[in-house]
Structure formats: C-alpha cells, structure tokens
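Record type: monomer structure entry
Structure origin: computed from sequence
Chain ID: A
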Amino acid sequence: MVGVKDEKSEKCLELFLKIGLDERTAKNTIANNKVTTNLTAVIHEAVVTDGCDRRIGNLLYTVATKYPANALVHRPALLKYIVSSKIKTPAQLEAASSFFASTGSEDFKLDEFEEVCGVGVEVSIEDIEWTVKEIFEENKNSILELRYRTNVGDLFANVRKRLPWADPLNINAKMYELLGEKTAADNEKPTKKKEKKDKPAKAEEKKIADDALGQPSEEDLNPYLIFPRPEDNIQVHTEVPFSDGSVLRCCNTKEMLERHLKVTGGKVCTRFPPEPNGYLHIGHAKAMFVDFGLAKERGGCCYLRYDDTNPEAEKKEYIDHIEEIVQWMGWEPFKTPEEIKEYREKKMNSPWRDRPVAESLKLFEDMRSGLIEEGKATLRMKQDMQSDNYNMYDLIAYRIKFTPHPHAGDKWCIYPSYDYSHCIVDSIENITHSGLYQPYVWEYSRLNISNTVMSKRKLNFLVTNNYVDGWDDPRLMTLAGLRRRGVSSTSINAFVRGIGITRSDCSLIRLDRLEYHIREDLNKTAPRTMVVLNPLKVVITNMDSSSIMRLDAKRWPDAQTDEAFYKVQFSNVIYIEHSDFRKNDSKDYYGLAPGKSVLLRYAFPIKCTDIILADDNKTILEIRVEYDPSKKTKPKGVLHWVAEPSPGVAPLTVEVRLFDRLFNSENPAELDDWLADLNLKSKELIHNAYTEPSLRDAAVGDRFQFERLGYFTVDKDSTPEKLVFNRTVTLKDGYGKVGISPNRGSSLGRGFGVVLEDSLGCLLVWLGSLVFPGANCRLNDHRQEIPPRAQSKSHHSSRGRSKPRQEYHPITVQANTDTQGFINNETVNDKAKCVATSQTLHVYELGLSSTFPTFPLNNLDLVSYVVSSTMEIA
C-alpha cells in the first residue's frame, strides 16, 4: 500500500475518505497523479467536498477513471444525476458513459439520455426477488452442489439481462437465503476432476497430438482486434498537459468525423512512412505488419509514404529498395509518392520567439529563396517551452538544406521536419489510425532483437566502414540481409505476428524466436540433400572400383511419390565428415572408429578396417572400410556422405558460408564500445565442400536442408563454375549440429549438438554451485565437431504442419568434490530429464516450465530445471 508523505497528498486523502473510499483505495489513488487530478475535479464539480454516501462516492470514482474525455463538457450534468440518485447503479453509469462517448461535445436530448440510462425506472424488490428466484431455480442443482463456489458473475449477468436496472446487492442476499451459513467445506479450494480419456488408436494419434497443441485465442487469430473502427474515432486518444495547468484533448467533432467517413467510405486508411536513409530492417517488418496488415484485414488501404524531408541522408537507391522490399514482404501499397539543446533542457524561450509576424514571414521567404546560409535559420512552431512534455517545446517546422532532393531535384532548399509534415499529410490522406481530422495514433514499440543492432545509424556505420559486406550481408537484420541468408517473408511475418503488437520498449526478443519460425517454414519447403563440409576419404575395399550404384534418397522424410525421391551415386570411394571419425572409440560415441560399424544414410553399413596416415603419423589421409551389402549389421550411428561420381573424379565442389551471430552480447546497443563486441568468428568460409551432383542446377535463392547440418540457401555470388551456399539456420532438433564435444554427453543426449549461450551459461554455472557447494564450475564451448546421429525417426517428418519431436539436449554440471545438495522450488521444466550420478548432473531440455519439490541430490533420479538452449558446463 502506498504511503502518504506531503501536505497536498494528505488533503487529497482526507477528501477521498470523505466520499466513502476505503483507505487502501484512497492511498493507491494518490499514487496516480492523473486519477488524483480527475477525482479531485469530479468531487468539486459534484459539490460534495464535505462528503457523501459511499455508494455515490464509488460512482464518482468510476467517473474519474472511466468517463470519456471527449465529452467533459457534459460531465457536470452527469454528476448531478449521480448526486441526486437518479443514476444510482454501475449499470446506469456504464450506459451513461457509452452515451456520452458517442455524443462527444455535441448537444444531446435529455429524454433520450434518460431512456438509455434507465433514469426513473424503478425495479421493485418483488420483481428482483422473483427474477433472482427464477434464475436460481434454473440453476438450483448446480448451486446446491457448488454452494458458495458458484460463479456469481454468470448468475448476475442473467439477472441484468432481464432487469438491467436492478440493484446488484439483492443477489447476494438471495444466495445467502438459499444456502444459509458458510460451512468449512465452502472455504476449501475446489479440486479439478480429471476425466479419463481412452487411448486413441495409432492412426489417430498424430491428428490428436496436433490438436493438443491448443486452440489459439481470438486475438492470436486476429491481432488487429485492439484497433477501433474509423466510425468510433470520436473519443479523446491523446491528452497534452500544458505548464499553466490546462490540458489539450485531441478528438474529432461529429461533423469532422462525418466528413472524413464520407471521403473514405468508412474504410481504414493507414500509412507506412519510412525514411529513405538506409535499407529496411526487421523492425520495419513489424511496422509493415501493423500498417499494411490492419488495412488489409479491414478491407482498407495503406499509403507507402517516404519521409523524404532530409535529402542529405537520402538516396535514390534507398527509395527503390523500400518499394521493392515492401512488395517482397507481400504487401501492396495504395500509393507510393548547441543553443537549441540548451534551450530545450532549461525550458528557455528562444530570443527570436516574439519576433513580429511580418518580419518572420520576410525571413521565411528569404530562406525559401536561398538567401540565408544553411544552419543560420529555422522556422519553428510556437508551442509551450514550460511543458513537462518535451514534444511540446518549439519544434522545427522548416530548415535550410542545400541538397538536391531525390524526387524534386534542386527546386527547393527548405524542407519540412518529420514532426511538422506527418500530421498534416496524415490528415490530407485521411489516415484513420495515426481544424484537421485527428487520426487514431497507436504508439507501438520498436522491435529489439538480441545479438544485433537495429539503429540505422549503426547499421550504416557497419556498412560504410566495411565491417560487413553491404546492406544485404546475411549477418544483418536488414530485410535484404535476411532474404539473402535464405529467410522467407512468410517466416518473418509469422515471427512478427507471434511476438504481438506490443507497446513496451523494455523487452529484448531473443534471436531463437526468429530462428524457430525460420525452421518451421523451411521444414515444410526445403528439400533434403547431403553435403560434406570437411571431407575425409573412405575407400570401400570389398567393392569393385568400377562399380557404381544408384540409390534412392528422400527429398522429404515422408516421401511417397517418385517426385519426392532423388538418385544418389554410391561407389567404392566416398567422403564423410572428418569429425565423424575417431581413432579411439568410446561408449557414448556413435561415429566411425577402428573395428566399428556405422550406417551410411540411404545406403549400407560399413566397418572400419584400416587407417592410412600421413608421414607425421597423425594426419589421417584416408580410412578403409568394408560394407555389408546384405544390411544384416544394425549399427546405432548414421552418417551422411557423398560419393565419387566415377573413378578418380572428385564430387561436385561448392563453397559454404557459415554465419553466426554478429555480436557476442545479447544487447550490444547498451555497450559503450559496441564495436568491440563484434563477433570476429561470425563468418566462416568453407571453400571445398562436397555435394551431390543433383545440386548442380540449383538457382540463386533455392533453399535446401543439408542433412545433419542445417538449412542452406544458394547465394547471389554463385557462378556457373561454383555454387555458393549460405547457412540460413542450424538444425536445432535435427540429427546433429556443429558443436558437441567428442568426449561429452550421455546415451540420451547422443547425436545432438551443443550451442553455448552466454546468459544461460551464467545461470547454469550458478546451478552447478548450488548443487555442488564448493565445486569449481566453468563453461566449455565445443563448436568444431559434428556428432553422428543415432538411428531414429527424423523430427522433420512431413511437409505439412509438424509437431516438434521431444529431444534431449545434454548439459553436464561436473564438480571437483564429492558433495551433496538440494534443489528447492525453483522455476523448472516439468518434462526435462535430469540424471544425477555422484559428481555429475546431466540436464536434458524438454517441455514447459513449472515447479518441482525438494529432493536430496544423492537420491535424485529425475529432476527438472528450465533450460532454453543446449550447452555444457564442465
């Protein structure tokens, strides 16, 4: 509860208590300056400063918090009705507020108002009792069973439908009369009964599993429900307090709204106004989703309007890019056409503020004619320099810029500011959601994504100083960069829809969320193929060197038709990943090793029989194996591979670019030296990867899933001689990804990669110290090896909607002392698996968060902890 400190607050508290507010509500009200001001004004307007009945006081409080600001001229009249008890119930007050919201400041007919609000309608006690009794009889069985746990709101709603002006207090009395005194059972918390469900048949399991993901809410299906209709834009949506205590309330008159609706036909008109001073980034995708998406959903139109009032930073290249990228995103525009700082901080008026009007007009004409040097004069709007809102200081309307405009050339040398031009153009274009028609303005937040910068100034610095390879560098969050990386507009729009139209700037969206939507899209659209990044030669000794088989491989995991298969060549010389072979085998390793067997994807089992080393006796030149044409051997590990197409001929060679996060920190924008945080290993070039001949005809922009590696897209730098692929995103839950330590992991976690996340790493170091007091915990990052995949059905099981397979990702907390510990009521993952053995605790990510009870660690079989990514602590 808020305390009361100064004398003014004490007087307000005394005033609020006089009208019947309880002390807690009164003190909390004082903490809100706006409500305090409104309630104080309402009490004085109602002439009840000496106090009033509590019921009247509660209604006055509702007026102070909910009365429409566009009808303040009628508030005194409403207060008279309340004080005289002509309006005495919340339902009547709600009806009155709705009436005045639609009326605004216009005159109204008194008899119409009284009819709408039920003034003079008296509902007798007998009528109320009869109606309540009737409803109770209809629900008697349920009420007698649930007693005081009955949902009174539903009962009351039924009473209000039949008797809208009835006194709501009578329902409680009737309920007490029917149920009598509360018993101990009435005070117990209700328990939910779980219904037993029959186990579904296997044929139905997948469908039911998909349905079990839950039905989306109405706002999930239509995020634009939060926006009002154009015909409702008569209420105050902006209040601007001035330093003299007055308040500017922005709203439309009925006549103004009618003229607007006549011109627009009642359609929603929005605008997307980017400044052409750089390439658009993913934050603009959110703006497009709101501006174009709302107009499309409501059957309206959206203007693409360039904020081209600063020609110094603008280029024709940027204008062309904006128009092209908007269309790529799937949207169709309706039309495409130091003293100052000190004054603002100290709220000082400019010495030229009171210059005579005639002299100001003469100087403005000189500005327009080019007679005044750039930076020597500006035209400012005369506003309120004493306001607490800095937007009310004297803002610039026009300034001098001797720079040719991309559209107008050198015809003009003065340009309007953003603040001056947009409000005028909004009105001229009849913008519905942004004297002149007052658009509805929705200030939604900017989109902040982790491990990158979104400021155009910083993006421009990175591009112009060659820290990145242009505006479309795949590491940037520009829309051009994302497109070049292989991200589709579908996944970007799905991501924006998923995060919602938020208004708070405080949140930082993790890059993982975007990557999730990218994978969901590519899983359905990217055909599978096999590529070996770091080839190791494998010679099959029991296969004739001239023998070449053509085997079926699947473009899609659920391949049924001929088109879903492609042919791969299998010869006695193949190539696997260097990281898929070890000289020394181990229990938890499922790759190839001396004397060990693995299965080649779509082909045969092979067993290592020999290793050919270089002169240094360390470097592996090739390995020799025997294959099992009968396929009787059933190894656990599965490897991808590429074969020589003919004896002595190397497979098709391609260049592969592996991209990582551009910055090491989650929020580099907060750092003083943000450039020092650049990830120097954010781009890795692999010049001689081997791939299947079927990729030879791939075109720029084609997307593929390289099995066990990730999703890749053909880059524009490709030539007829050599294809270039960009890694779009890794396989989070696929066969494996670059990064697991060859010496770590358990049988449950085998074959799944490890990606180090700094913030979660800190959390897990803390977990290690909690579980093992005194232990020396540290983070290990292993990013060089690809683990082999244990045989199992692929997560990517269909081109249609798929349910993510539940995989286990290993996290190892290893201590250097024999200790015991407890984990108490932490936020955890109720489906995650934790296996504790002596000094090591393995945690496996899976499912949603909840809490778990206290367990002694040395007896722990299953424990849960929330983990959002995979890593290793050792």
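Annotation 1: Residues 125-183 form a domain with the Arc Repressor Mutant, subunit A fold (CATH 1.10.10.2420).
Annotation 2: The mean pLDDT is 75.
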